[in-house]
Design brief:
Elements (H helix, E strand, L loop, with lengths): L2 H20 L4 H15 L43 H4 L32 H5 L8 H11 L13 H7 L2 E4 L18 E6 L7 H11 L3 E2 L4 E6 L5 H19 L23 H10 L13 H18 L3 H15 L4 H6 L1
Length: about 350
């Protein structure tokens, strides 16, 4: 401290001490004023020595105050009743509980009711069809009508469609919840065709039926080919069409040894090439004067006789086939029933 500062300080103390001796009643107030004056002037006096603080005190970490954001209420609470659902849920998407105004529940809880739609992972796993409501489907159909053509004339009935499109291809699509959208059963292709729609003669038809085996249904005349060997549906469809084409062309092939077959070598009884047909023709056209032309009404009898003989030879001699053959022979030869004539 400088000399002038020391003199000023001691002069102030001497004045205060002398004032206390003269006026004892002001002793407390003077001391308090002295100390209060010192306290006030301690840091304001320019002559006081100031301590140089080289090491600053570290301030403690201040915590950041996070402001809690306000959570908006679910969208379902402000949805109007007559809203356009197609705009809310326009396409396929994961289930969102705040957008579906329905009390949907999914899952299982041992100790309570089925979990609700909020924070429900089960509802998010499965696919939903909320975008295919009846009004939305109707709207989409109306939009697709502009790209559709009129139904062709002449295909109003199923019979006309079968005649115009004899080949029917059947495939299956599967929709399920799994990591892979492909299903192994979707590759299977079933091809159906009516045998009468194929241009086949008797030889080709018989050969085709022997090649396909049990794939032909004689009740409705439909040939069914099912393919599932290839991994893709397109490959199985091409393979089915290839099999049908190969069967058709193979059935029309006539081998050299087939012309050398006799009646005993035939796989079935063919009445048109049999000795029975020649014998019955000679019998019906015989006259004492020589053979004549067969009348027109005998053709019907020969057709029934042909059916009876072919059934008995191909299916075997049974009670039904023998009785049918007997009746046709009696009609052909104009013979009456012996039991009826004996009773009369």
């Amino acid at each position: 401290m400088s000399l002038a500062g020391l003199q000023t300080k001691y002069a102030r103390v001497f004045f205060q001490y002398s004032l206390q001796l003269k006026c004892p009643e002001l002793q407390g107030s003077v001391l308090s004023a002295c100390f209060s004056t010192r306290a006030k002037t301690k840091h304001t006096d320019d002559d006081d020595f100031r301590v140089l603080d080289l090491k600053q005190k570290k301030q403690g970490p201040t915590r950041r105050k996070f402001k809690k954001q306000e959570v908006m209420p679910p969208r379902t609470s402000v949805m109007p009743v007559d809203q356009d659902w197609g705009s809310v849920w326009p396409g396929p998407r994961t289930f969102h509980p705040a957008s579906v105004p329905l009390p949907v529940r999914q899952g299982y809880n041992d100790k309570g009711a089925t979990p609700g739609k909020f924070a429900n992972a089960e509802l998010m796993k499965i696919p939903n069809f909320l975008h295919l409501t009846p009004p939305v489907v109707k709207r989409q159909c109306e939009a697709l009508k502009h790209f559709c053509t009129a139904w062709p004339q002449g295909l109003e009935t199923d019979k006309q469609c079968e005649e115009a499109f004899p080949i029917e291809v059947i495939t299956s699509d599967y929709c399920h919840s799994s990591p892979d959208i492909r299903d192994p059963l979707a590759r299977i292709v079933t091809l159906k065709v009516k045998l009468n729609s194929l241009p086949l003669n008797a030889h080709a038809k018989d050969k085709l039926l022997r090649l396909v085996g049990e794939r032909y249904n004689p009740d409705n005349g439909v040939l069914t080919i099912m393919t599932d060997r290839c991994p893709l549906r397109k490959q199985n469809l091409d393979y089915a069409m290839y099999l049908l084409t190969a069967l058709f062309h193979e059935s029309w092939k006539v081998e050299a040894w087939e012309s050398e077959k006799s009646e005993a070598d035939m796989e079935y009884y063919d009445w048109e090439t049999s000795a029975s047909r020649r014998s019955i023709k000679d019998l019906l056209t015989w006259t004492p004067d020589g053979p004549t032309e067969q009348p027109q009404d005998v053709q019907v009898d020969l057709q029934a006789f042909k059916t009876a003989v072919s059934t008995m030879m191909n299916e075997g001699e049974e009670t039904y086939t023998l009785n049918q053959y007997k009746e046709e022979v009696k009609k052909l030869l104009s013979l009456s029933d012996f039991s009826t004539s004996s009773e009369s």
